[in-house]
Amino acid sequence: MMILKWIWPKEAIKESASLFKKTWGERAIIHVWVGAFFFLIFLVAIVLCVFVIINGAIKTGIIMLVLFIMLFIVISMSTDTVIKTILFHYAETGELPEEIENKDLLTGIAIEKK
Asked: Residue 111 domain-assigned?
């Protein structure tokens, strides 16, 4: 849960429902693509760890697997938070945040309202 405004819980629930209705399509598309991307990265990591374990370095393979899982969790959660923040700003203002340098990358995801 992110707190981006200081409002009462009842108002926050109403606003959250409204924002969800505005961005549900973008949210679904983004989560599918980001999820698929991280899934593929995770599969590569698993294959690498299994390869190391099969070649006799069991402890090294297990340590690598644990480190990959921890890194995967941190990066995917950070990415999810950034995406949610961008979508919140987009739903509130109808525009992408100023801090995004290459807005052309997101035009297929969030088309600015005019």
From this structure: no
How many Cα atoms occupy the beta-carbon half-sphere of 34 within 13 Å?
18
4 within a domain of the structure (yes/no)? no
Tell me the DSSP string of 61-76.
Answer: HHHHHHHHHHHHHHHH
pLDDT by residue (tens digit) across 17-54?
Answer: 777 777 777 777 877 888 888 899 989 999 999 999 99
CA–CA gap between residue 99 and residue 82 (Å, rounded): 12
Spatial contact of 109 and 26, defined as CB atoms under 8 Å apart: yes
* DSSP annotation string for 4-29: -S---HHHHHHHHHHHHHHHHHHHHH
Q: How many domains does the chain have?
A: 1
User: Residue 47 is inside which H or E element, if any?
Assistant: helix 9-54
Are 95 and 88 a contacting pair, CB within 8 Å?
no
Give the pLDDT of residue 34: 84
Structural domain of residue 51, as residue ranges? 23-95
- Give the H or E element holding residue 89: helix 58-93
